[in-house]
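I'm stuck. Please check this protein.
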Amino acid sequence: MARHIYTPEEDKIILEKYGTMEASEISKILGVKPGSIRGRAKYLGFRKSGKLLEIGSKHGMLTVQEVVDFKNRDLTNAKYLCKCDCGNTIVVSRNKLMPSKKRSCGCLVNAKHEKWSKMWRKEDGASSYNSAYHRYRSGAKSRELDFNIEFDKFVELVSMNCHYCGSEPLPFNGYGISQRVNEKTRQRAWIKINGLDRIDSSLSYTENNVVTCCTRCNLAKMEYSKEDFIAHAIKIAEFQKNKD
């Protein structure tokens, strides 16, 4: 089959349509095979096959508004003005939009950074409160007990004096002797807390079944009920007083 000789008019059609239409669509207009159209387009300066992205097409959070740079006829690097769902506009090349490599104008990355920044910009002692909270949760789980106390309520309770003897909270650092953090971070982590005691040791951790408790009272009470423990503590105190 004889090679098709392109006329100036046909070249003009290819220059106008290639990039906005597929080679197969242009071939129907000119009556030439798609492969020939692609070859001619390359000869005319087009560096890639395919077509430009459609106006209004969605890529991640970006919507194509218009083509802003197609001077070099490079479909891969054609640049588009896109509007992000957040309202910002940005110029992006096709190779970054396909297949949705760039998901936003940058707001997603900024939001992610802000999220992590907030996590790392914790108030002094926050990491230690978190550590104590998760220790209680994991300890309860290992003993097959439910732990139904919200974090804020937990912090409120452990920051109080002991319900039984009135002892003030003692220093605690959630990092312990870990070497994962620098000394400045470790110093910021110091807090003062007491522990929690279950009033009824046969039940799980709930707001109605716990009181603030220092370590000594917690160890002494063990499985006693609240009433039995207090009665025994009074008995000890009276015996020691009378003994003297």
